[in-house]
Amino acid sequence: MKKSLVAVGVIIAVGAAWTGASWYTGSKVEKELNKVISNTNAFFAANAPEAGLTFKVENFKRGVFSSQANIVISAAESAGPDETIVFNTDIDHGPFPLSQVAKFNLMPKLGAAHIELANNASTKELFEITKGKPFISGDAVIGYSKSIDSDLELLPIEYSKEDASISFSGSKMVFNTTSDLEKVDASLITDNLVIQKADKSEGMTLKGLKLISNVTKTQYGFYTGKQEFVIADTDFNIPEVKFSFKNLAINSDTVLEKETVKGNLAINSDTVLEKETVKGNLAYSIDGLTALGQNLGSGKAVLSIDKLDAKALGQFVEQYNKALAEGLASGNPSAAGEQIAMDIVTKTLPQLLQSKPTFSISPAYWKNDAGQSSIDLSMTFNKWNQDELTSLALSNKVDEAVKSLLTSFDFNFTLNKPMAIELLAQAAILDQGKAVDAEIKKQYVEQATAEFEQAQMMLTSDMFSSPFEEMFMTDEERAEKAKQKKSPWMVEKGNDLTMTIKFAGNDITFNADKYTLADFLTKMKIMSSPESTLDYEEEIIVPEVEEAPAEGAEVAQPAN
Q1: Which residues lie below 8 Å from residue 225, measured CB to CB, with a gap of 6+?
Q2: Mean pLDDT for the chain?
Q3: Burial class (CB in 10 A: 0-12, 13-18, 19+), 379
Q4: What's the predicted TM-score (pTM) here?
């Protein structure tokens, strides 16, 4: 009997403790949910103001062991409740949420929520397609460390209406973050999406979509980390276009790096400073692009930046999003764009260049069945003082302005002639909007060859000569100029046209020819030679003033 009483007492004590703990954590859950929603609004305002999305919590009903709430999403143009998207949320309180206990997950948690898309005016048709089931549903677990681990599912769809059909294989979305959104790990994967007319005359097929994001918010307000977006196979069956591509990929990878700066900030005081810079790259690639039965080719481009001042970048991102948000709110985004452009030139760039960053595009190429063309570019900047650059440019010291802006500049361009001719022919066929047979394609290639030959004459012409100048030359002057060494824009090497530019210090090499920067810019007529600098001091000419005739004197009349 005593053992039974002890057992009953233990059960009552545990139940009371669980009840009290659940009631207490229920109050914490409400506070944490409101914090997450507030941080989500701040995130969209700071990183995607153009989306115009607003999140809020409505109808929160707290119980002892569970609570219910609605998460409402509205857009800036939403006219009212009928144009909002609502998620119904059932929250089991910790420390041992019942839904997690049922899954034998006995680790203490602040709460566990089940989320479902609600059936309202905005989603009514979607619920018809899914036969009354929520298209989006899932679970989110909130830890005492303020971590949020969520798994959402998008239902498969097979739907036909009138002359159109949709087939969707469904999708899984994993979203793990913290309540303050400082660290975000997310992934979205789907296998297949097909939208087409009933007779299959038009449609779109998308296969193998993958979106992965692993980013962390920096103290400067922007995120660094890795992101990946891939579409394995896409086919657009549209009569005027009909194109497809394989393995379209966009990848980004950014990190913060500490840079040590030594300076002598005071007499006999050597100071070592540390500042953070951004290093990252953004890569675009596509394995195959086909349109109207033509293989247009494949390509890749990688844009890289190194030693970009992190503090200045954070200020720019903040200013950009603020100006964009204000422009959207005022209904005049173009004015905001103009202001952003002005701020970039006058404020942002000088700040971003304080760390002497390097920018590069390498590799960048496009290739088709006929050949491959490529570009490689690398440039390192100096600190930019806009007033100094403007003063140098206006003083006919453009070379000094360039040296103040750039430490080095390397550029290599290879244009493959067969590749370019094939691309011109394909562009002409695409412009006609219909596929052609081999005989007609040959005619397009012949036309493209003639066009390229005309372009090649311009590309290999002397870059220091102007046909307009030669119009006013005498025969002797033209003959003398013809004897001079030519400096072509591009050099012909077999099936390629190439251009190479290298600048460092005071010298620039353009293709095989070396110049001082001042001589090169003078020959290009970007600046005047020092000897021909105009003297802007104008001579003041005082016109002679005839004395007025004395009173009573006769005034000579002009002869008729």
Answers
A1: 213, 214, 215, 216, 253, 254
A2: 80
A3: middle
A4: 0.79
